[in-house]
């Protein structure tokens, strides 16, 4: 049974990738601005209002400079040497809204664009670029009360080390006395515990939802899902046991001992994106006494047969991008609903297996939790 | 007066740089191990027990690959093409103990080593390498209770945005009721609010000091000192006013409102490294009613004439590396002592204007604060 579920998850998270929007636009508007995730003071890479990205790399004596973004992954964008000795190039189409990882190939070696901040993905710190999205307001840094993202180092006897987690606490947590529910939120393969804050803006999404009165505050805990212990092609060989032990036997007790949590099953959720969804599915099914809310974001599906005791599941959230396999999410939602399970599905319009899908998914999922 | 002080500070922080230990060793021991700040799973760069660093860069079609570390900054280390098409090279001498920034020049362009984590320095995210130090235990991740490093976003009307700070809270803070003193701790030019945690391990230094019973716990607040608004050569033109406003009028009230602090002058310290020391000096002298403990780490000196009212200063800490200008620190210490001011000086043996000096300085300074 577990093998079959793994296959479903695998299919879901290899069909994504960097996709271009379909309609090619005939003229490129010259309204390029620096990407918002550039390093301080860096002009390039730039993006225009249509979603084209333009790169500039200084490497005067190089023979070949190529950026991995572009053409749906088939070779990316080849840069050309400009008069000043720099290398420049523009994607041959507008890119999907939101965040994209990329890297720069200089004479056969993979490097980062010195212009951008780095984000952990593909088991390396990668360059990132942000294509302005029509709905970017929900994850924008706004003048509202802000929660905090805390780094904690928790003891992990099972792995023989102190492990890192990040904990989002909502505005007012520090000086208040309230206890809060907790969402355990996992990243995908190749990423780590920094992804949901850095790429996902989970903290800003929460701040904005709370400021708008759309959710009751809760904590989010993000730790490394030990996903990268297997190579991407070997995800089938992944064993959930070591991470399940860290999460359930070590991290959750640490959080409940050190934060003001509502430490009951009814006030605990787990969700994850991509391979983090696969982990969420396995752990929530293995440990139905621990979590009441489950979320798979581009990360597999539950079937009615998976749910042994409907009364233990308060709500299931399933989502993916419209450029992934939305029909799978919709069908799973219908089947779960028909079986009397409380489920919500969400399809992120115009996005693929990327963080814009998951930012939107968190925004949609958060108001459903801990009702 | 202010101009003269600036000059002293400037001299102090341009005399540093990456230095080799004097004694050249005749044979290179082949006991190289991956640097501890490599990206997960990356073998290179490596360091040996003598302090040599060895680099490996993949760029098969490049004509020239050079690493900025080596020969005291005069050209760094030129890598040679190996049989497998990679570029390899070893520094021509052992490097100072501790952390060093570096970058890789590929055919005339400045990139990061894909093998290492990135650290913000020189106004860019740079590669970093860690040379094992004989005293590294004091900043090691050990099996002791760990405090937390929290990211806060505080409102800053004077700059029209939310600004980021990191706050170290000691073990037990979350569930406790105690109030704590606060150290405001500044980075140097080219760095930002991430430096003291990432490069400095300030949190681990505190955890270890607390576990050993050597200090009473306090909070550390680290924010961006707006140092990089001026180019390195133009530091003389830097105005302290914008940052002083952010720190004193915005950040301190926010911290006192949102954390359990002892919000009095006697329980507040400010210290900084390099240009952060210059800022510390100016702000502590401009605002004697705000701070009682002052620390300049390779960041200028106080003279007795600077201190208008001795009764307002509980303790001054001055430090630098033995490869900087230790005689200046020692002389300033003697003059302040002779003038009846409570002062401690510290010289970090065998280190230059780099983070090992400042890690050690924090370790020496922390027990002196808030007595």
From TrEMBL, chains A, B:
Keywords carried by this UniProt record: Hydrolase, Signal
Entry keyword annotation includes Signal: yes
Signal peptide: 1-23
Molecular function terms, GO-annotated: acyltransferase activity, transferring groups other than amino-acyl groups; hydrolase activity
Alphabetized Pfam families for the sequence: Esterase
Domain of life assignment: Bacteria
Protein name (Swiss-Prot/TrEMBL): Alpha/beta hydrolase-fold protein
Organism per entry: Xanthocytophaga agilis
